[in-house]
Specification:
The protein has helices at 22-31, 74-90, 113-124, 134-138, 143-152, 167-180, 197-205, 238-243, 269-283, 301-315, 328-331, 338-352, and strands at 7-15, 37-38, 51-52, 102-107, 158-161, 186-193, 229-237, 250-259, 292-294, 324-325, 354-355, 378-379, 384-391, 395-402. With 406 residues, it is of the alpha/beta class.
Length: 406
């Protein structure tokens, strides 16, 4: 049987509350820095919670060159910034790439919700007639990938996958398929979501937002913290990357996608465990070979308990040997961007043999009894890293990254 084409990561672009650009982002994670602060983008005085992981002082004019920054929503601005950073990091000139074989695969949860907020505010003020065509031109989720294609002139495969908080991993999986099938030579793959009053209100009404900090897997965890950001990974065929002398971070070795098919918001461990097992089978690896698990780790009581059980189900006895951490403790939950940002962390963990910590982990929970790398980054061999993401609707996605060797 002919060996399938191998897919590698050659560039990373991240825009997060702890840092913009791969180096600043990685330094902050390893230092256990927190990007959580008081919400500034809207008034939270009527809420019982007031914190979030906003990207402060972000100016899209530093990244959006071909399009008009004010003609798109913030999620698109964040995505273009991450893409431009990723292309620079990969040493790729967009103008020199074949536009027909360069594509975009993006994940998102909410698309461009700020447009809905503007519509609502104008409607409540009695100014509905002032809403122009920009609403339909900027709001639908598909515009995020379309804006990326237009900004860089990429005419290859183009898709937005809105599988909620697993969307970044879904987008990476889809992009790897585009490359393996020969539909594309280069793919920009990742996720983007902007801080949203709508999303914040929804989680606040659910009582899911922690009042002060996010404490994944801690016995006294009180919930998640909404955040925003974007991450893009440049994926290429391995032979192409080697031929052009690219620096290769890691290989995307396999993935697994499942659905619980059960409940809109209550996760089930069986589906998550199956996603991990499928990913390992796709990558041709055993549980005891995985050196790091990037957890979904939202900090909510149910999610962390169910995720711990799912890892035990998928890994068996090896579950107690593999380090697992949640960078959401530092960034907050960036929705559709989360697993893309976490994928960036996985590739860096594989490259550097370093694991970012789960900060604010103070009190052990008997129901969450695995190795969560509490509070301090760890130096340890990481040949393979698994990135897990679980979403509303029961969407589960696991992606595995392998250390690259010539």
């Amino acid at each position: 049987m002919e060996q399938r084409p191998r897919v590698v990561v050659t560039g990373i672009g991240v825009v997060t509350s702890v840092g913009v650009g791969v180096d600043a982002f990685w330094r902050a994670l390893l230092a256990g820095a927190s990007g959580i602060s008081a919400v500034e983008s809207f008034d939270t005085s009527r809420y019982s919670v007031h914190i979030g992981g906003e990207v402060k002082n972000f100016d899209p004019r530093g990244y959006v060159e071909r399009l008009r920054p004010n003609a798109m929503g913030r999620a698109s601005q964040l995505a273009i910034a991450a893409a431009r950073l990723a292309l620079r990091d990969a040493g790729l000139d967009p103008a020199a790439l074949d536009p027909l074989t360069t594509g975009v695969s993006m994940g998102t949860t909410s698309g461009e919700p700020s447009l809905i907020e503007v519509f609502n505010d104008k409607d409540l003020a009695g100014n509905r007639d002032t809403i122009g065509p920009e609403f339909i031109e900027q709001y639908p989720s598909h515009v995020i990938a379309a804006h990326l294609a237009s900004e860089f002139g990429f005419a290859g495969p183009n898709i937005v996958i809105p599988t909620a908080c697993a969307a970044g991993n879904y987008a990476l999986a889809h992009a790897s398929d585009n490359i393996r099938s020969g539909e594309a030579d280069v793919m920009l793959a990742g996720g983007s979501d902007a801080f949203s009053r709508i999303t914040y209100t929804g989680f606040a009404r659910l009582g899911a937002i922690a009042p002060e900090r996010c404490q994944p897997f801690d016995k006294n965890r009180k919930g998640m913290v909404p955040g925003e950001g974007a991450a893009i990974l440049v994926l290429e065929r391995r032979d192409r990357a080697i031929a052009r002398g690219a620096t290769i971070y890691a290989e995307l070795a396999g993935y697994g996608l499942t659905c619980d098919a059960n409940h809109m918001t209550a996760p089930q461990g069986d589906g998550a465990a199956r996603a991990m097992q499928i990913a390992m089978a796709d990558a041709g690896v055993r549980p005891d070979e995985i050196g790091y698990i990037s957890a979904h780790g939202t900090g909510t009581a149910v999610n962390d308990r169910v995720e711990t059980g799912a890892v035990k189900q998928a890994f068996g006895d090896a579950a107690y040997q593999v380090p697992m951490s949640s960078i959401k403790s530092m960034l907050g939950h960036t929705m559709g961007a989360a697993s893309a940002i976490e994928a960036a962390a996985c590739t860096l963990a594989v490259r550097d043999d370093r694991i970012p910590p789960t900060i604010h982990h103070e009190t052990a929970d008997p129901e969450c009894d695995l190795d969560y790398v509490p509070n301090i980054a760890r130096q340890t061999p990481v040949e393979l890293a698994m990135n897990n993401a679980y979403a509303f609707g029961g969407n589960n996605a696991s992606v595995i990254f392998r250390k690259h060797r010539l």
